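Write out C-alpha cells for DNA-3-methyladenine glycosylase I.
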Amino acid sequence: MRCGWVKARDATYEAYHDLEWGKPLHEERALFELFSLETQAAGLSWLTVLKKREAYREAFAGFDLDTVAGFTCKDVERILQMEVIKHPKKIEAILHNAKLFLDIKREYGSLDAFFWSFVNHTPILNDVPDYKTAPTTSPISDALTRELKKRGFKFVGSVTIYAFMQACGMVNDHEMRCDFR
C-alpha cells in the first residue's frame, strides 16, 4: 500500500514515491536537482514538475552546480524554449541559487553537510496516520527557510522547504500503513 497522496495512478508518480520520496539523499548533484525542482513546484502540482524532470536535467546540464552557477541570461532564454515550466523568474532563481550554493559549499564543505545539519544528520520519522494530517511546515523548515532567505535564496518558503525535506528524506512522512515507510 502507498501513501494516500499517490492518487494519480501514474507510473512516474508511483515510481517516485516507491523509490525516491522520503529516502535519505546525500549526493550533491541530486540535492541541488531536488531543491531546484521543488522551487519550480511553487503554485503547481509536484507531478507537473516531475513529468518535466528529464527536460530540466537536459536544460541544466544534469544539475552540475558549477556549470549552472556559470549560466547567463542567454541560458535563461535557451531554457525557456525547452519543455520546462515557462516562468522566467523561476528559471533565473535556479541560476541565482546555484551561485549561493557555491558559497554554502565553501562554508560547509558540501550541500549535504549544510542541509542535514538542520536535522542533526538523522532523518526525522513522523507518525503520519493519513497524509492529510501530515505537517506542511515545521520549526526546522522555518529555520532552514530563514537561513536560506538570509543568504538571498529565491523561491523558498517554509512549505517548499518542508516538501524538499520530505523528498530528500530529512523527514520521513510516509503514512504509517505505507509499505514504503
